[in-house]
Design a protein that fits this description.
The protein is mostly beta strands. The chain contains two helices and eleven strands; from the N terminus they run E-E-E-E-H-E-E-E-E-E-E-E-H. Strand 5 (95-101) and strand 6 form a beta hairpin.
């Protein structure tokens, strides 16, 4: 998920009554970023990830596991951005604990590293020839590949490296939220995303980005148990009234 692909900025939420019961859920996760560009100033970006989620109860407590089915990113230069299937597959299906803290649902998704090996370098790489860069998505290119399709340049592959750690906090009991739905905010304990190279030199680097906490959010709702990645987005959009 880049999804973009964070710095410990939690937002408060009203009290929640309980954690979601075990079952199948869909989640829309919107992550937003800010960047400062020379001569242009502050620019905004965002991506929306669609996650197929399983909540389970075990001896150690309630856990949540997700699979990233799709990531939709904002367009660039009149074109569109794509996250290839290999990228989605290599995001895996992480499992992490759910908790009630101060009455609010909290899902600490844990740290994730895309496009590089943190055991081989002290920081997220800035270029393809820095230590730690790996062919993370096994497509024969360094880092992790995101694809641009642009009117003038055609297909351009960007090679990225990222480290992120998100914590979701929600308040299902809020008056304007259906009782079976979880909506809330995204806190970033860690975020560092870099474009380290590309198939066109004009797009082979990017300015440092920072998370836009105010524009980041998530919504999760129960979906039928037979939901697949192919049916998740339209089903969840219908449930959320989009």
């Amino acid at each position: 998920m880049i999804p973009a692909l964070l710095v410990g900025l939690a937002l408060s939420a009203p009290a929640a009554a309980a954690l979601p019961p075990p079952g199948t859920y869909g989640m829309r996760l919107t992550t937003a970023t800010l960047a400062d560009l020379p001569f242009i100033g502050e620019t905004k970006g965002s991506s929306t990830s669609w996650l197929l989620v399983e909540v389970a109860q075990g001896p150690g407590g309630t856990t949540q596991q997700h699979r990233t089915c799709a990531v939709h990113m904002g367009g660039v230069g009149g074109g569109r951005s794509e996250v290839p299937e290999a990228f989605l597959v290599h995001l895996g299906q992480p499992r992490y604990p759910l908790a009630l803290r101060d009455g609010a649902y909290v899902a600490d998704m844990g740290p994730s590293h895309v496009g590089w090996d943190p055991g081989a370098a002290a920081r997220v790489p800035r270029s393809v020839d820095e230590p730690g860069v790996i062919d993370w998505d096994e497509d024969g290119q360094p880092g992790a590949t995101i694809r641009l399709r642009l009117p003038i340049f055609g297909q351009v592959d960007l090679f990225v490296a990222q480290s992120a750690h998100m914590v979701l906090t929600a308040a299902p009991a809020a008056a304007d939220v259906p009782p079976d739905r979880v909506v809330g905010t995204v806190a970033y304990r860690l975020f560092d995303q870099r474009t380290i190279g590309g198939t066109h030199p004009r797009f082979a680097a990017s300015p440092p980005m920072r998370p836009d906490v105010a524009a980041s959010s998530f919504a999760m709702a129960p979906v039928p148990a037979d939901t697949t990645c192919q049916t998740l987005e339209p089903r969840l959009r219908g449930i959320l009234g989009e």
